[in-house]
Amino acid sequence: MARRAAGDAKLQSLRESGTLNARSEEVCDELFDAGAFFDPHDLMQVKYEMLRRVEAEGASVTEAASAFGLSRVAFYAARRRMAREGLAGLLSRPRGPKRAHKLSEEVMAFLARVLAEDASLRAPALAERVLERFGLSVHPRSIERALARQRKGGRP
């Protein structure tokens, strides 16, 4: 039976929630070939079924990971997070810092003082000043974004 295509609305919803499987075409397990319930685009469902295949049906990790279009490393990470957090552990999480953590209030106040003295300074020069004063290596683009947020009235 031919694999059904997910509707545009569902794909958009999966994309917005961070659960869209970018490698859905690599899912070759028979569950995802038949019927409307199993959707290879739904990464959370794919991970859950991969874990279930190993835990409940005794499939090997290598076989299950391959059938569900994922790696063995992804299997072990999903199993660890599922054991620790339940189903919520299967949700994707954004990587990296949530904000410009090096650009503290103290650093931003310093940048404001430096810019008050010389408004012609650009981000690369400001990054050098931050390195000299605080010993922090900050990318010039991070400084540009932080200053733009500050001008707009956003968080520091």
Features:
156 residues, mainly alpha, 7 helices, 0% strand, elongated
Into which percentage range does the β-strand content fall?
under 5%
Q: Characterize the largest beta sheet: strand count, sense, and whether it forms a barrel.
A: none
The number of helical elements comes to 7
Contiguous runs where pLDDT drops below 50 for at least 5 residues: none
Mean pLDDT score, rounded?
89
What's the N-to-C terminus distance? 55 Å
Plain-language structure description:
The chain is mainly alpha-helical and 156 residues long. It contains seven helices and no strands. The chain folds into two domains: 83 residues, no CATH class; 48 residues. The chain is elongated and about 70 Å long. The mean pLDDT is 89.
Detail the topology: elements first, then pairings:
Elements lengths: L7 H10 L25 H15 L3 H7 L4 H14 L19 H13 L5 H12 L5 H13 L4
In short:
With 156 residues, the protein is mostly helical.
